[in-house]
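Q: What would this chain look like folded?
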Amino acid sequence: MSDPHSNALADRLAARFGETLTISKVRNETTAELSAADLIVVATALRDESAFQFSELVDLCGIDYLGYSQVEWDTDSVSSTGFSRGVEGQAMGRFDWASRPLNEDKPRRFASVVHLLSIVHNCRLRLRVFCDDDTLPVVPSLTLIWPGVNWFEREAFDLYGIIFDGHPDLRRILTDYGFVGHPFRKDFPLIGNVEVRYDPEQKRVIYEPVSIEPRVLVPRTIRNDADLMQAEAEAADDWQRN
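A: My prediction, written as C-alpha cells:
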C-alpha cells in the first residue's frame, strides 16, 4: 500500500527541482539522486524552504558499487547441511585487479548517501550522490549545512576513501593514522594488508606483512524464513489490490 506522505514528497521534489533530481520510490522510501555539483544548492533548499524543512541529517555513509549485483556467495546450489567454503571467489585475495568484478548496473563506483528527516512534515528522504572520478572520489562536504555530519563524513573518508571537499578536519576516525587503505572498499583484502604485534625485544608495537592465507568459511545452510515469506505474500496481495 502506498504512503500518501511519500507520494506528496516525491511530487514536491519533482515540482521544485525538476530534472536536477532523479526520484525513485521503493517500499515507500523516497530516494533522490543528484550530481555532486548540485548537492550544496539542493541540500540548502531542502533544509530552509518551508515545503521541505529537513532540519535533521540522520546519517551519511559511503557505498562502493564495485561488482554490484554480482553474487559471490553460494546459496541454493550448495548443500543444506554442514559447514564449508561457500564462496565463488570474487573478493580481494581471490581475484587479481585485471579480472576484478566490474560494475554492470552502476557505471560509477563510489557514492555518498545522506538520510534526512523533516520533523515538521513527518517525512524522510534519501539523497544519493555519485562521485565523478573512481580514482579520486570527491563530493562536497555538508558540514556548513548540517554541522553534525562532521564525524559521518570522516567515517566515510576513513572506510571508503571518499574526499569531502570543504570539510574542516578530514582525517581518519576509526582506523589508526598509519593504516594502509580503506577497509570497506570491495577490493580491500579480507585479511587486511598488515598485522600488528608487540615485540618484547624491541619493546614496541611493530607492523608486519599479513602472514595468513585468504580464506572464507561460511555455513552452507539454506533457511526459509517464515516471516519473510509471509511479508512477501502480503506485499504481493497489496500490489494486486492496487
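The helical segments are 4-17, 39-48, 150-160, 226-241.
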